[in-house]
Amino acid sequence: xxxxxxxxxxxxxxxxxxxxxxxxxxxxxxxxxxxxxxxxxxxxxxxxxxxxxxxxxxxxxxxxxxxxxxxxxxxxxxxxxxxxxxxxxxxxxxxxxxxxxxxxxxxxxxxxxxxxxxxxxxxxxxxxxxxxxxxxxxxxxxxxxxxxxxxxxxxxxxxxxxxxxxxxxxxxxxxxxxxxxxxxxxxxxxxxxxxxxxxxxxxxxxxxxxxxxxxxxxxxxxxxxxxxxxxxxxxxxxxxxxxxxxxxxxx
Amino acid sequence: xxxxxxxxxxxxxxxxxxxxxxxxxxxxxxxxxxxxxxxxxxxxxxxxxxxxxxxxxxxxxxxxxxxxxxxxxxxxxxxxxxxxxxxxxxxxxxxxxxxxxxxxxxxxxxxxxxxxxxxxxxxxxxxxxxxxxxxxxxxxxxxxxxxxxxxxxxxxxxxxxxxxxxxxxxxxxxxxxxxxxxxxxxxxxxxxxxxxxxxxxxxxxxxxxxxxxxxxxxxxxxxxxxxxxxxxxxxxxxxxxxxxxxxxxxxxxxxxxxxxxxxxxxxxxxxxxxxxxxxxxxxxxxxxxxxx
Lengths: 251, 292
Ligand SMILES: Cc1cc2nc3c(=O)[nH]c(=O)nc-3n(C[C@H](O)[C@H](O)[C@H](O)COP(=O)(O)OP(=O)(O)OC[C@H]3O[C@@H](n4cnc5c(N)ncnc54)[C@H](O)[C@@H]3O)c2cc1C
Ligand SMILES: Nc1ncnc2c1ncn2[C@@H]1O[C@H](COP(=O)(O)O)[C@@H](O)[C@H]1O
What we know:
- The complex is a heterodimer of chains A (251) and B (292).
- Chain A is an alpha/beta fold.
- Chain A has a single domain, classed as HUPs (Rossmann fold, 3-Layer(aba) Sandwich).
- Chain A has helices at residues 37-53, 68-76, 94-107, 129-137, 190-198, 238-247; strands at 2-6, 10-11, 33-34, 56-63, 81-86, 114-118, 141-151, 154-161, 164-171, 174-178, 201-204, 213-219, 229-233.
- In chain A, strands 9-8-7-10-6-1-4-5-11 form a 9-stranded mixed sheet, with helices on both faces. A two-stranded antiparallel ribbon of chain A has the order 2-3.
- The termini of chain A are far apart.
- With 292 residues, chain B is α/β, with parallel strands linked by helices.
- Chain B folds into 2 domains: 3-150, Rossmann fold (3-Layer(aba) Sandwich), CATH 3.40.50; 173-290, Rossmann fold (3-Layer(aba) Sandwich).
- Chain B has an 8-stranded mixed sheet with strand order 6-5-4-7-3-1-2-8, sandwiched between helices. A 5-stranded parallel sheet of chain B has the order 11-10-12-13-14.
- In chain B, α1 (13-29) links the parallel β1 and β2 (36-41).
- Chain B is elongated, with a radius of gyration of 22 Å.
- The N and C termini of chain B lie far apart (67 Å).
- The complex binds flavin-adenine dinucleotide (FAD) and adenosine monophosphate.
- Flavin-adenine dinucleotide sits between chains B (178-180, 204-207, 218-223, 235-237, 239, 241-242, 245, 256-258, 261, 274-276) and A (12, 34, 36-37, 122).
């Protein structure tokens, strides 16, 4: 089975977000970068499927040259090769992102049996790139997936819904968008990292179409304006805490 | 020109919020005063529900289609947008008319807002939950039969119905532990307090990544969103992605050994101290008060 997994490089924001002066990006001077936990799980799931079924895992990203870091990270946890769709750092809207992914997958010599996505990107959260890719490739799509079982050329997918899980029986090839919790991604080992450096990475530079959902400015939501009331230090604070619980009517 | 609103049903709170959003969009753009609400009739199948929306757009050329920003709302509208090759603004909080109009939408699970130009022939928008007040109930949505789509999959069965305990989403008290709890066994003190308060146990991603708790307990951007009367955060630093899951809490009590932890900036009440000393003391105090 040839499984593809799509990931997006995002800053690892901490306790508070600061914006650049032009308010068009998060200030990343002191931040590391990562991919969404959903996407890390997509790669882990792809690796586990290929460990059982045989085949290969391709990770794919559309992003600036620095995103090679995320592709190498994903190869360190077991992806076999990477496709890097290089951008100049400008943000691409979800339609353009999906179109570039579709072109790259079509041009690839290896037709996919399964294309995995995160349920939503960590930063933009557009909830649509996977669905758009599926329609453009004429493939079925399941989103919000918390379990995948491959058997008899089909993928049994469990979609999380309020009150349980809906089961979709998807024929392969299909597009599946997964959520964190589907597995517990492994940590990259030192040999894994060394191997990842030598794994094949193919880069191309797609043309950016005009944006139809064009981010113009970022804003921090209004401050909660909360002023914390310190009830005390250590166990001596317990009576004050219980008083608060009583006031709130939860005791 | 009409504005269409996809509702789950006539009484659904989030659908009524979408209806309110549609009304103000209609007023701002000079479209028909009253939006046309509709529901889709037929078993849920995301691609065919998306096709239903696309068919309505083709048949009626509305100015906009608005849906609630729920998992299903976002999924159906993504299919519709893909079929129509139109842009979609998911989890939108505000609309400003213009040519093209501007939408405000949430990023990072609500920790950041984005303003964006929406260049759509028909404006496809889902509304972030609780971003606008709900319209009063009382509309009778038009019932539209589901269209056919060749690639549509429908669920074949429902599994794993919840076991009946207090769920994280519905709990009125959530006691949540972070890396500061120290170990899986360390959660005994968190469970004890949650049990005494009839609440649910939550945790941070640091905890699920360490394998101390299952992911079903995780609160945050990629976990569960909670809305209790009080959220008690124990040994949690207050990362934006964690806070994205507990914004809905009415009150927040932070217990952390580091008085400088950013969680205190989001908290109503704070205790500076070690969770393993503070939590047992609170539990003992509750027993004492109740025993009296
Ligand atoms: C895209 C993305 C999505 C994410 N989604 C989520 C999510 O859904 N949920 C989530 O939680 N995180 C999420 N994260 C991770 C998040 O950024 C943080 O890494 C995580 O929330 C940190 O967990 P923590 O607060 O338990 O650990 P830490 O940040 O390590 O904080 C531990 C805290 O415990 C305190 N402490 C230590 N010992 C004690 C003690 N004995 N008593 C009292 N206090 C003590 C410390 O002072 C510190 O403040 C996400 C990250 C990314 C990039
Ligand atoms: N720039 C990108 N490169 C590769 N995959 C992406 C990119 N943006 C989004 N995706 C994939 O599409 C999923 C959904 O993204 P979104 O529609 O933005 O919420 C993500 O979790 C990724 O798997």
